[in-house]
Amino acid sequence: MTPAASANLPQLAHRARSVGASPVREILALTARPEVISFAGGLPAPELFDAEGLRHAYDRVLSERPGSVLQYSTTEGDPLLRRAVAARLSARALPTAPEDLLITGGSQQGLTLIASTLLEPGDTVLVENPTYLAALQCFGFAGARVVPVPTDDDGVLPEALADLVARERPKLLYLVPNFQNPTGRTLPLSRRRAVAEVAARYGLWIAEDDPYGELRFEGEYQPPVAAMEGAADRTVLMGSFSKVMAPGMRLGWVRAPEGLRRACVIAKQAADLHTSTVDQAAAARYLADRDLDAHLERVRAAYRERRDALLGGLPAALPPGSTWSRPEGGMFVWVRLPDGHDATALLPAAVGHDVAYVPGAPFYAADADHATLRMSFTTHTPEEITTGLSRLAKVF
Ligand code: PMP
């Protein structure tokens, strides 16, 4: 397109101009070289996808009922898939009917639907600090005012949350309670109860984003915030098949109170009519024919070994005085270098040594700590992780 043509056009919408691309993304684009050992990605390990089981599921639905699985379908989603998700949730202390669920294009779409059905420009959303980057983008696109809640190593501090809610009158609290992206932290049960109590007392919505909950490899299962007293009528729980099946299928779900769920259905209709019929049917077939829990056991065992390789090598790789999280599941370890270190400034040197991580600063809604960084342990073998850490040691 010529510049003259674009100069003669109305501007992009304010929200499209105000949510920028990240410069870190450009540096990380350089890490696609095969020799780079990247701790930067947030990807599940591709060699652990059950490709054979999924191929079989797609084969079956395409050969048994091609006319329906290649056809348009309902916005709410495949009834068999909703039934299977409801059964998994009900078995985990959260009684759920298939009708409580809306199937989405990944949990990311759940976030977009919630933002577009709940938020007016200028509404306040509370988030953990740091939090999931694409949630910040999503709330930014909705024109929301994003305010961070003070946290410690166990997640949000309930007393600080109560003070902030009384002062800021937010509409929504966004939480990733299990193995949070980026910190790997998990919110303990007592805080889940306290958060639900604050939300009920002051009347706000909770968006509980849980793509990693099924990746626990040690410690005790924590019931969702949605299951806490006072939370049922105000919590939207989002789940995903990305980390348990395959992210390329783009399947997730939203479990929401009726009024909000209906609004999300209408918003989804406007966005994409429905999630891919064939992918939903294949996922439902897979859940009926295969043992997802047995598959997850293999994934968890591999991730645990990789986490241990990372945690085991960090003391020798990082400068003295560094600290890091010790996640009981999920995909991420959060590192803080000693005061004075800037993880963004160090990244080009790391990439020069064929190793990468994500600087922590962009994950903060405010008051970014530039000494932080996120490391994913999922996509490399323990040996590669050890090699990557020895490269990092040279950089630091
Ligand atoms: N929420 C969080 C906290 C995530 O880390 C991610 C993906 N990395 C998502 C939502 C989106 O996942 P998906 O759309 O693949 O389900």
Key features of this structure:
396 residues, alpha/beta, Aspartate Aminotransferase, domain 1, Aspartate Aminotransferase, domain 2, 2 domains, seven-stranded mixed beta sheet, four-stranded antiparallel beta sheet, 15 strands, binds 4'-deoxy-4'-aminopyridoxal-5'-phosphate
CATH superfamily of the largest domain: Type I PLP-dependent aspartate aminotransferase-like (Major domain)
Q: How helical, in percent, are the residues?
A: 40-55%
Q: Count helical runs.
A: 15
Uncertain regions: pLDDT < 50 for 5+ in a row?
none
Which ions and ligands are bound to the chains? Answer: 4'-deoxy-4'-aminopyridoxal-5'-phosphate
Using DSSP, what is the number of strands?
A: 15
- What's the overall geometry? globular
Say what oligomer this is.
single chain
Largest sheet: 7 strands, mixed
The helix-strand sequence is HHHEHHHEHEHEEEHEHEEEHHHEEHEEEH
Describe this structure in words.
This protein is α/β, with parallel strands linked by helices and 396 residues long. The chain folds into two domains: 140 residues, Alpha-Beta Complex (Aspartate Aminotransferase, domain 1); 239 residues, 3-Layer(aba) Sandwich (Aspartate Aminotransferase, domain 2). Helix 10 links the parallel strand 7 and strand 8. The radius of gyration is 21 Å and the shape is globular. The model has no long low-confidence stretch (mean pLDDT 95). The structure holds 4'-deoxy-4'-aminopyridoxal-5'-phosphate.
